[in-house]
Amino acid sequence: MSERHPLTPYRPRDAADILDMLVVGQPISLVGLSNFGKSTLLRHMAQPAFARSYEQRVGHPALFVYVDCNRMLEMSAQGFYEVILRAATEMLSAQTPAPHALMERLDDLYRTVVQSQNSFTIPLAFNDALLALIQDDESQEVILMLDEFDAVLTGLDERVFLNMRALKDSYSAQLNYIIATLRPTTSLDVGDDLAEFLEPFGAYKHYLEPLAPSDAERLAADIFHQAHDSLDPAERDFILNQAGGHPGLIHAVAHVVMEVESGAPVTYTEQALQVANDVLGNHRLVRSEMIKLWNQLVPAEREWATLVATQGVDALSDVERTALLARGVLVSDDQGPRLFGRLFENYARRQRLIQQEVPAGVWVDIDAGVVWVDGRRVEALTDLEYRLLLLLYGRLDKICDKYQIVDTVWGQEYMGEVDDARIEKLVSRLRSKLEPDPSKPQFISTIRGRGYKLNSVQSASNLA
Q: What is the pLDDT along the chain (464 residues), one digit of tens a residue?
């Protein structure tokens, strides 16, 4: 194990564990649920202090390049290569002195990647740019930290990953990768090329758990300090009990507490916290965090979480308990394993009740942002798919014409740009997730020349 001095001000223990794995030279998979702090940790690891610690361990310098894949201009090989080179150039420009000759070379290759229409030229220019980075100082290693990588893994042609694996194999001592995802890559159904890219990550996973109580308290205190307020013991206990160590929920609960207590005398703290407790269940920030968390769990993980919430942790097998501990859904302390926070426990319990009460047909839990069909929870919808479904659901058994659809789903400003084919494609994608047999739709009917409608269970049964 590495020396436990603070390598980063944020999640120093996680940074130290990742450093231990990095010095081995193998690619690393960083896994954590939404707003557990993957991005914040990686950004801290891109700072010079972490690079100096790495150099002390391995005996040579490294350039840590943080790549936010959400900044991709489009989901394509060209967009992927572009965002990596853009991030590398930004990192180099921050160095003192800046390596101008290398940056000019990278700029030329960057323009080739961006401007080329040739599917062979684009990866070749990217490879040349990466080699220029590696060979500029042969004693220096390049470590690409690829954040927000989930959509990339499922959205790109798998030949992109074959190229990335080939580069790693050819320059194993000078090139390494860290990928950050919401779910373990082992849960993906992938083809041979992507499986080959992911293979070395299997043995080098690091799961982000909820923050330790001391770190969670420090975060809550910082949030209060930034609002020119101070965190008292009652507020601290309330926030940590409700949010656990989930950074995103700590932010949400802390802001609710400050909103409720604004202007109230100190002597009314207990009453204010009771009001905050009533507010939390339907608060926008809290609800948003819970929906994201729940949708990121695979169906089996959701089932296990609801079992714990309704029957206790003893309802799980040892394998199930271990899996939830790794994901950070369960935490363990002197009192044994439990769900990480009261808010999540209440949410999981509510999902079990909803599942038992879900009516037949299409049913939307608008508060939770989830959709059920005949008691089966469907996979997460995209934003456009969900907007379309809400429109149809609000007009059950009534026709929605294309003008209503464009206005509600895309917005009034797109009225002249969205054609029938684009609407049909969106309807087709929604059907693929809702219909038992999309080729013979029961729930979403096409009314030729007029629009679409969502059928109630009675209407759908007549079509079956």
A: 344 457 888 899 999 999 999 999 999 999 999 889 999 999 999 999 999 999 999 999 999 999 999 999 889 999 999 999 999 999 998 887 878 889 999 999 999 999 988 888 999 999 999 999 988 766 789 999 999 999 899 889 999 999 999 999 999 999 999 999 998 888 777 788 899 999 999 889 999 999 999 999 999 999 999 999 889 999 999 999 999 999 999 999 999 999 887 766 666 778 888 888 888 877 888 888 888 888 888 888 999 999 999 999 999 999 999 999 989 999 998 888 999 999 999 999 988 777 666 778 888 887 667 788 887 778 778 888 989 999 999 999 999 999 999 999 998 888 888 888 889 999 999 999 999 888 889 999 999 889 999 998 766 656 65
> Is residue 134 within 8 Å of 175, Cβ to Cβ?
yes
Token reading at 38: 């993957």
The whole model's pTM is what?
0.74
